[in-house]
Structure formats: structure tokens, C-alpha cells
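Reviewer 2 asked us to include a model.

Predict the structure of this chain.
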Amino acid sequence: MSNLVEDFNAYRSKMNDKILADNNKIIKRIFNLDTNAYQEGALDVKTKELLGLVASTVLRCDDCIKYHLENSYKAGLTKEQVAEALGIATLVGGTIVIPHLRRAYEFWDALEQR
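Predicted model (C-alpha cells):
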């Protein structure tokens, strides 16, 4: 399980490099918009990451969940704060998100074990 985070980041980085190497203006702008949307603004970074985590869970995007979990961890959010946000995501998304909730907990544990 300890390689879960490293494997995800290595694959994500490799494929992002490959995608961005095509120099597609639309894709580059979307990537840039995504990066900038999570910067400090009227809402702090922690709040934005929790919003991203909830939306990603409801939409059932495991890669997005991992991305926001790691950024939440780096931003200093606690397991309790993340668990509360995941609880709201499960309430909103329904029982269909439970498999994603399991993987989210597994990934958070891997982040803590690093």
C-alpha cells in the first residue's frame, strides 16, 4: 500500500507530460484553469480542496479523489475534516459512491504512512 501514492503520482506526471507535449491550446488552458482555480482567493485552499474532494466523490472520479486527497493532506487538513467532507459526499452521492469512499480511505492511509 505504501507505493499507492507514488505510483499514482508517477503515472499522473508521465501522462500529463505526454498530453501537454502535444501543445494543444485548449487542453493547456484547461489544465491552467484547473491549477489556478485551487489557489487562495475569497475561499482558502483548504476549503477549495474539500469542495473539489466532495465534487470528485459525487462524480465518482477516483483519480480526482486521489488528487484532492493529496492536496488536502499537503494543505494540513486532518483526517477528521476529510472524513466529514467524505461523509457529505456520500450523503449527496448516495450509496453508489461507497466503493470510491473505500478507495479514498485507503489512499489517505497511504498518505499518512509516507
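The mean pLDDT is 96. The chain has six helices and no strands. We have added this to the supplementary material.
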